[in-house]
Structure formats: structure tokens, C-alpha cells
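Review session, final week

We close the course with one last complete record, chosen because it touches almost every idea we covered. It is DUF7344 domain-containing protein, a protein from Halorussus limi with 130 residues. Go through it on your own first, then we will talk.
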Amino acid sequence: MVRQDRTTVSERIDRSCDLLRSAYRRRVIYALRRSGPASVGELADVVTAAGLADDRQRAVASLVHTHLPKLSEADIVDYEDADEVVSLAGGVEDLEPFLAVAAEREADTDYLTFTGPAVASDAVARYMPD
């Protein structure tokens, strides 16, 4: 029985790390936590402004074909197609401990500094311990 519990915990950690290894996906989650539901275009603006994509079109393509489907499949975001508004889903709560650490570390860099709909310091503050 203990072995099964350890496997389950280990699998959850692996899944969380896989989801959060992409700066695109972390940026999407930060933006949705900070500003609430957003269109794919708004999220593309966020990742482009953060320097994660060369241009908006590439950001939209990457979000639509890779990152949003992966987050949706894991129940982190609610999203079905490029015309739909993206919002956080219940599964994001499983990522909270990892997001707190990632946001804290990324706050120490210029990575979260950008001019866009979400303010970096507020996005990090949502994950910082009191």
C-alpha cells in the first residue's frame, strides 16, 4: 500500500514538472491567475511581450497547437479551440507548490518584467508565502 502511495505522489510530481518546464505554459498560468480569463490573442501578446516568441503569430500557433492543448488535457485550463476564451481549471491547484517556487525564482530575473496586461510583481505575489 505504501508503494502505491509513493508511486502516485511520484507520478503527480513528474506530471507537474513536465507541465511547468515550459516558460510558455508558466507564463500562461501566471497571466490567467493575475488577470482572469483571456483570449488566445491576449495570451500570445503576453508571451511575446515576455520575449518567449519572436512575433504574435508564432506565439498563437505555439499556444494553439502545443501549450493550451497540453494544459487543457491536464485540467489546468479550460480551452477547446482558438476562438475560445482560456480560463484556469481546477487542476491548477495541484501545481500551486511548484508555481510558488517557479514564480519566486523567475522574479529574480528580468523574465517576468514586461509591459502587458499582467503586472509581473502581482503575478509573483499570488504565489509568494505570507
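Two points worth writing down before the exam:
The chain is about 60% helix and 5% strand.
The chain has one domain: 2-125.
Good luck, everyone.
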